[in-house]
Amino acid sequence: MGHLLSSRVEKGTAVINKELVKKVLAANDLGGVARDIGLEPEEECDSGLFIHVANCPVCQERRLKISKKRQSFMCFNTNCNSHGDAITLLHFAEGLTLTEAVGKLAQRAEIPLYE
Ligand SMILES: [Zn+2]
Questions:
Q1: How far apart, in whole angstroms, are the C-alpha atoms of residue 87 and residue 101?
Q2: What is the DSSP string of the chain?
Q3: Averaged pLDDT of the chain
Q4: Domains of the chain (ranges plus CATH)?
Q5: Distance 30 CA to ligand 1 centre (A)
Q6: Given this model, what pLDDT does residue 13 score?
Q7: Please, are residues 2 and 107 in contact by the beta-carbon 8 Å criterion?
Q8: CA 106–ligand 1 middle distance (angstroms)
Q9: Could you tell me the pLDDT band of residue 112, with boundaries at 50, 70 and 90?
């Protein structure tokens, strides 16, 4: 069934709405996603905030900071400045379209894309 869902996503027929995006982002921890795609996140405490420091998928420098609280990332290489959420991270790291990234995260969290 998971395979069927992903092939439908690849054909671009999945209906990606705000509600699904919200659900998918809430169900996938960004540090875990970064680990899955090989960015080697390490937990750190920075100014009282718990973050992950990881390899940036865009500039490859180890200056990517992931906020566990906000579930967002930002690269502190000033020539790069890439930032976003789990969907954008997959887009940057694996070259997926945003729709494909939502599909992949939905699968990862076992969220059905269709009723
Ligand atoms: Zn970067």
A1: 5
A2: -HHHHHHHHHTT-S---HHHHHHHHHHS-HHHHHHHTT---EEEEETTEEEEEE--TTT--S-EEEETTTTEEEE--TTT--EE-HHHHHHHHH---HHHHHHHHHHHTT--S--
A3: 88
A4: 28-106 (3.90.580.10)
A5: 16
A6: 55
A7: yes
A8: 26
A9: confident
Cα of 7 vs centre of ligand 1, distance in Å, is 31
CB count within 10 Å of CB 34 equals 23
Q: How far is the CA of 63 from the centre of ligand 1 (A)?
A: 7
Apex CA 22: angle with CA 100 and CA 36, to 5°?
A: 50
Give the pair of three-digit tokens for residue 65. Answer: 């900071």
The CA 29 to ligand 1 mean position distance, Å, reads: 20
* Cα of 47 from ligand 1 centre, angstroms: 21
